[in-house]
Amino acid sequence: MSISNAFETVLLDVVAGTTPAVTGAYVQLHTGDPTEACDQNVAGESTRQAISWNAASGDSITSSAAVTWTNVSTAETLTHWSLWSADTSGTAIWYGALSGSATVAVGDTFQITSLTLTLD
């Protein structure tokens, strides 16, 4: 799991007070490593879903509810996720691998039941 290069700059700007903090976060699915730009191996089911968070604690933050894609549009094997500041365009924030790959068929529902981000 890693913070994207673009978001490393945003974090520095937030600390410096030159840009506001991120006001929303959206998860996108991938069929392979999205790389630091988070623009590679985007799943055919490319809709970004909003994610909500619990309060940060002990250098970590966890999602407060499941993130769900209903009626998946493409049969594929999902392996990674990326986090974005907007549902379209926006800034790539973070990315990582799913705890296990998941094969979905057209019309399936796919769910990430919990997502934890940790800073070391």
Secondary-structure blueprint of this entry?
Elements: E1 2-3, H1 5-16, E2 26-30, E3 49-50, E4 60-62, E5 67-69, E6 76-84, E7 92-104, E8 110-112, E9 116-118
Antiparallel strand pairs: 1-7, 2-3, 2-6, 4-9, 5-8, 6-7
Walk me through what this model shows.
This protein has 120 residues and is mainly beta. The chain has one domain (2-118). 10% of the residues lie in helices and 36% in strands. The protein is built from one helix and nine strands; from the N terminus they run βαββββββββ. It has a five-stranded antiparallel sheet. Strands 4-9 form a two-stranded antiparallel sheet. The protein is globular. The model has no long low-confidence stretch (mean pLDDT 89).
Count of alpha/pi helices = 1
Give a quick account of the main beta sheet: strands, pairing sense, barrel closure. Answer: 5 strands, antiparallel
Kindly report how far apart the N and C termini lie.
11 Å
- What portion of residues belong to β-strands? 35-45%
Question: Strand sequence of the main sheet, in spatial order?
Answer: 1-7-6-2-3
